[in-house]
């Protein structure tokens, strides 16, 4: 239960929220997950800051089509910083403290009433989406350079449009989520995000945008590589230029692969969660319905009854088969 007036809703019940700590993990599993996230966030922060500081040393070195690398390095440095802050904060931001007077336990934050949680959500979601969009813009600039033979100056003239899309689209989505009150605390990482308990929000505001970005970026990468391969065949007698082009193709392949592998893995996790989340919730409620004094789910009772009936029939058949062979 949660205090009234906050607009909380969980599993279709008003004024309810998920318990804190996490519903699905044991204490030792939670500690391992938190330590893992905190460690990885430090490595990610160091790597992205190194890229950005390298850019500051010599700004002219990173021109288009490579310039978007700098922008999404900045985006992911802020993302990793948010996770590191969440690691330091623990559950203090993502969860509401228990209130013994009102007989309320620790619950996960749902909605934008908690200011600290809302700020973490805004920064994390905005820069996560912006980083992905900047990767798509990187594939666009690479395609323009490799497939359309655009010069650096010609691509740079479109920089205003790139910035408008890269910052405007995540900003619009972030404002929409705030208006819909879809902020949710993550009691594993300590941050706040969207779609952690709301499947529809996860599907339309996280999974769908990421899938679109992967599809567009991968299509442009393949088109650019095909164009580069065609150029390589045309200049096959020019060994020097062919070697430069070969190195350029390898850089594109390695860089896109290093980005795509974790992103596709993340999408796989989101899809897996979309398929299994309802089962997880029903199972959890079935295991804890008496502890929290809530109605036990009908689906689990029906499944349990069917399974017990099936087991009885199997045992009955087995018993008949055994007795059929008896001489008596």
Structure description:
- The structure is a single chain.
- The chain is mainly α and 328 residues long.
- It has a single domain, classed as Up-down Bundle (Rhopdopsin 7-helix transmembrane proteins), CATH 1.20.1070.10.
- It has eight helices and six strands.
- The strands form three sheets. Strands 1-2 form a two-stranded antiparallel sheet.
- Helix 3 runs antiparallel to helix 5, helix 3 packs parallel to helix 6 and helix 6 runs antiparallel to helix 7.
- It is elongated and about 75 Å long.
- Belongs to the G-protein coupled receptor Fz/Smo family.
- It is a multi-pass membrane protein.
- It is found in: Apical cell membrane; Cell surface; Cytoplasmic vesicle membrane.
- Its main location: membrane.
- Pfam families: Frizzled (PF01534).
Could you name the key traits of this structure?
328 residues; mainly alpha; Rhopdopsin 7-helix transmembrane proteins; two-stranded antiparallel sheet; 8 helices
The whole-angstrom Rg is 26 Å
CATH-derived architecture: Up-down Bundle
**Overall pLDDT:** 82
Order of helices and strands: EEHHEEHHHEEHHH
- Biggest sheet descriptor: 2 strands, antiparallel
Note the total helix count. 8
CATH topology: Rhopdopsin 7-helix transmembrane proteins
Give the name of the CATH superfamily: Rhodopsin 7-helix transmembrane proteins
How are strands sequenced across the largest beta sheet?
A: 1-2
Number of strands: 6
Strand fraction band? under 5%
| Spans of at least 5 consecutive residues with low confidence | 311-328
How far do the termini sit from each other? 63 Å
């Amino acid at each position: 239960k949660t205090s009234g007036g906050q607009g909380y809703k969980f599993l279709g019940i008003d004024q309810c929220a998920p318990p804190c700590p996490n519903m699905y993990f044991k204490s030792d599993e939670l500690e391992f997950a938190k330590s893992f996230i905190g460690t990885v966030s430090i490595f990610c922060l160091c790597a992205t800051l190194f890229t950005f500081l390298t850019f500051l040393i010599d700004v002219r070195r990173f021109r288009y089509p490579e310039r978007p690398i700098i922008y999404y390095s900045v985006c992911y440095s802020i993302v990793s910083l948010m996770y590191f802050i969440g690691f330091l904060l623990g559950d203090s931001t993502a969860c509401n403290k228990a209130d013994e007077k009102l007989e309320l336990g620790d619950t996960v934050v749902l909605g934008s009433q908690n200011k600290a949680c809302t700020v973490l959500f805004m920064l994390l979601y905005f820069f996560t989406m912006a980083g992905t969009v900047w990767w798509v813009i990187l594939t666009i600039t690479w395609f323009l350079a490799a497939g359309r033979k655009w010069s650096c100056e010609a691509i740079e003239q479109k920089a205003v449009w790139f910035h408008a899309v890269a910052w405007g689209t995540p900003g619009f989505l972030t404002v929409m989520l705030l208006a819909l009150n879809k902020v949710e605390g993550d009691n594993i990482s300590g941050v706040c995000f969207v779609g952690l308990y709301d499947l529809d929000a996860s599907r339309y505001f996280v999974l769908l945008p990421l899938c679109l970005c992967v599809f567009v970026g991968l299509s442009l990468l393949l088109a650019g590589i095909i164009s580069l391969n065609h150029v390589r065949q045309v200049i096959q007698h020019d060994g020097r230029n062919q070697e430069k082009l070969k190195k350029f193709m390898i850089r594109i392949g390695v860089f896109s692969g290093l980005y795509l592998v974790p992103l596709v893995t993340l999408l796989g996790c989101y899809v897996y969660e979309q398929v299994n989340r309802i089962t997880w919730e029903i199972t959890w409620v079935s295991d804890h319905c008496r502890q929290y004094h809530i109605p036990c789910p009908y689906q689990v009772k029906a499944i349990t009854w069917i399974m017990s009936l099936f087991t009885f029939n199997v045992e009955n058949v087995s018993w008949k088969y055994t007795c059929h062979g008896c001489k008596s």
